[in-house]
Structures are given as structure tokens and as C-alpha cells.
Amino acid sequence: MTHDAQPGASLYINGAPVEGRGPDLDVLYPFTGEVIARLREADVAQVAQATAAAAAAQPAWAALRPVERGRVLIRAAQIIRERAEELARLETLDTGKPIQETRVADWPSGADALEYFGGLAPTVTGQTIPLGSDFVYTIREALGVCAGIGAWNYPSQIACWKAAPALAMGNAMVFKPSEETPLGALKLAEILTEAGLPAGIFNVVQGRGAVGAALVSDPRVAKVSLTGSVATGQKVYAAAAAGMRHVTMELGGKSPLIVFDDASVEDAVGAAILANFYSSGQICSNGTRVFVQRGILPEFLKRLSERAAEVRIGDPLDEATQHGPIVSAAQANKIRAAIAKGQAEGARLVCGGAGDGAFVPPTVFADVADAMWIAREEIFGPVMSVLAFETEAEVLARANATPYGLAAGVFTRDLARGHRMAAGLQAGTTWINAYNLTPVEAPFGGVKMSGIGRENSAAAIDHYSQLKSVYVGMGAVDAPY
Ligand code: NAD
């Protein structure tokens, strides 16, 4: 296979590509296992160099008119759309996800974020608080240098979702992509430079967890935004606490998708497929516990296995492919171990199974009980657990009986019940008669162990800025002596 994935250099610091001085980092194409790029990690001095460049550049960026910052982000969104096909192909090489997905989901969603926050930047204002003749006004200020750390499932979207609100508010960013998928963030850095971003405002360092840890504890970093697992989130949150740094934590989940017997079974099956098998199941908000009301369970399982049997699995660069490989052999093996655990626990395999090589097919377990490992733990692969339920009160309690709280979905034609369930479900995002749609206009993030803070929407502005109160005294100072 010929490819053009090798970047000019591994890192991007102060507006220019820089070669890493740390350990080697080979990038594999998940479909073939072929090395498509040879990178090197940043060493500790280079992490410091990146944060120093960001700290030096940030005040002048923050001093621009917001409309000028916004213009750069909107221009970057335009460049992304002009290069859509090239970028989709690179994303497929980096992640193994089918080109029919990367064309519509990854960079397009990143471009939406750049456009949205570019437009929002000039609308952010303070408040005036009257106090008789004195008054207070507030200023929403940048935090300074923000660290972004990404997961491997949506590498370019994650980089854009973090960079767009951070830069819009006048911050600088040092971004560390996942070591599994390091290529998209480098493209974003180049595109932002081309769009007119000053040097030092968006930097990329590569590396495994240790490089992320060095970044999080750098004294110049004021905020850390992580997308990753709960276990990593706990470490990063603790490290950030030492320096009283702000955090956004976008972590894992074990989200419920609840199908009542008055729902359209065809739509609910479609949603369950989207909620479990898109991106080969490697999505944080996936509805991996599918609760189906007992009366429609046989019909639901029948249509689900019929539709799952139609999936086209194969070469991700083939436009017809709907289901690609898992990101790495290590992750594929973890998923296989989870499937074996489900079988050993007595869940009934309805379709799918271990697969081979890089591929795990869409897999459905029925007769799953709440206490089973597969119903409690995030698998992060194409493995759906179907659980039967009888009543609304019962399913709400069971859906909420998890330490996670990223997302939830309800399928019903009963309007009042849909809203009642949405109110009762402990989740950052709840869909009614839909699943896994995350437009930039809507806040996204978790409750409970699934995270802190929100990405997207105007809510993200609060997480990339701080409020200053300015008290203005208008009269004589009334001192006691
Ligand atoms: P991970 O936690 O293994 O790694 C995430 C990132 O953290 C990587 O870049 C990694 O190098 C870095 N890292 C690891 N240890 C670190 C440390 N001690 N300090 C600083 N950085 C460190 O996660 P992953 O396997 O790449 O991604 C899968 C997980 O991410 C799943 O749990 C999934 O649910 C979650 N996820 C959440 C969202 C969301 O928006 N809520 C989105 C995508 C993925």
C-alpha cells in the first residue's frame, strides 16, 4: 500500500515542526499492521519547551479582539472542509475506522467546533452589578496555558473540541494525542498555522502516559482537559490538584439504552446498532446495556441479529466497508477476553464472537444479568449486552445502578414517559428516540465517575476561562479611623 502518512516531524512547537528526542513511536495502520509513520516522543525538555512557547505567546493572543481570534478558527474550519478527503483518509490510516465514517464524523465535527467557537468568541461579555453608586463589573479572562490530552477513538475531533474553545477564549494549548493515533493533531497544528494562528498558540507533543504526566505537572499549565479512561482520569485529576489546576475530564461509561414496548422496534434496533457498533464500538458514550421491555424482546433480538448479519466488514479504505478493525492488537485481545468472560458467565451469544486478527464482529449477548462483568465494565469494543425488564421504575433503578454517568437513551412513543425518564437518568447526555448524536451546539460530558466539565456549546466557554470581579468605588472611602 502506498501512503503519505509520515509527517515532516513528530512534534509541533512554537509554530514549526520539531523532531522528538524521546523514544521511538511507530504508527501502525490497524488494518494491515504496517508501519505508516515513524515518530519519536518528546523528551521532558521538549515538553517544557512547548509549554514555555505557549506561555510566551499567550498574552498577545489574548489581547487581540475576540473577532480576530474567531476569524482564525473559522478560516481553519474552511481549510479542513477544503481538504476533507485527504484528512478523512489520514484519519482512517491512523485509527482503522471505515472511510465512510471518517468522511462524515471526525474532521467534519472538528470543523464544526472551530466554526462554532470562532463565531462565539466575540459574543462573550461580562456583567455589570449595580451597588447603589458603586458597582462591580466582571471580565471573563483566559486561563493561560491549557494542556489537552486525547484518546485514540476520535483523535482529530478530540483535538478540535479542546483547541476550539480554548483558543477562542485567548488561551494557548499544548496537546498530546494518544500514542496510538498521533497524526491528526499534527495536521491540525499545520492547518491552524496556515489559517493565521500565531506561533506558540497550538503546540503538539507526542508520547505515552509519561509525557502526558510531565505535561500535567508543568508549572506553566493552568488547565488540563483529558479524554480517556476513568483510571487515567483519576491520576490526571490528582496530579492537576497539586497545582490547583482547572480540569475537564471526559471519561468512560457503561451507558443504558432503554427500549419500551411502545417504541418503533425498527428505530430502536437501528439506534442499538449505532450505540454499539459504530467505530467498531470504540465510543465512550455507547449504550452498551440495552434494556428491552420483555414483550418485544424476541422481535427485537430477531431484527437485531438479522441486521447485524448484513454488516460489511473489511478494508476500511473501501467505501462499502461499514465495520473496520480494532485500533490495536492489544485492544482487540482485551475485547476478546471480555467476550470469553460473558460466555463463561452464562450470557447467551446471539451473534458475533471473537472474530480474528484485527477484527471483532458486531457481538450481541442476550440473557445478561446486571451483576455480570460484561454488564458492569466498559469493554470499548463492539459488544452489546441485552437485558430484559418489566416496569419503568425497575428499569430506571437498574439503569442508574452504575458508577458511570456519561450518557443514556430512551425509546418510547409516550411523550411524558420519555421526559420523565430523561429527568431520572443519571447521565450528562440523554437522548429520546435517538442515540449518540453529539452536535457542537449541545453540551457534552459526564456525571459521576464519567467526568467533570462540559465540552461543546456555550457551556465550554466557562471551562476555558475564569471570572474577574472589578469593584469600582465612586465615593469617599469610609475608614473607621
Ligand atoms: P487512556 O486513559 O488509556 O489514555 C488517554 C490518554 O491519556 C492517552 O493520550 C494517554 O497517553 C494519556 N495518559 C495515560 N496515562 C497518563 C498519565 N498518567 N498522565 C497523563 N496522561 C496519561 O484511554 P484510551 O484507551 O486512549 O481511550 C479509551 C478511553 O477513553 C475509554 O475509557 C473511553 O470511554 C474514553 N473516552 C471518553 C470520551 C469522552 O468524551 N467522555 C471520548 C473518547 C474516549
TrEMBL record:
Domain Aldehyde dehydrogenase: start-end pairs: 23-470
GO molecular function: betaine-aldehyde dehydrogenase (NAD+) activity
EC number: 1.2.1.8
Keywords tagged on the record: Oxidoreductase
InterPro entries in UniProt: Ald_DH/histidinol_DH, Ald_DH_C, Ald_DH_CS_CYS, Ald_DH_CS_GLU, Ald_DH_N, Aldehyde_DH_dom
Keyword Lyase: no
A Pfam family: Aldedh
Superkingdom of the source species: Bacteria
Record Gene3D superfamilies: Aldehyde Dehydrogenase, Chain A, domain 1, Aldehyde Dehydrogenase, Chain A, domain 2
Location of the active site: E250
PANTHER family linked: ALDEHYDE DEHYDROGENASE-RELATED (PTHR11699)
Family, per entry: Belongs to the aldehyde dehydrogenase family.
Protein name: Betaine-aldehyde dehydrogenase
Gene that specifies this protein: betB
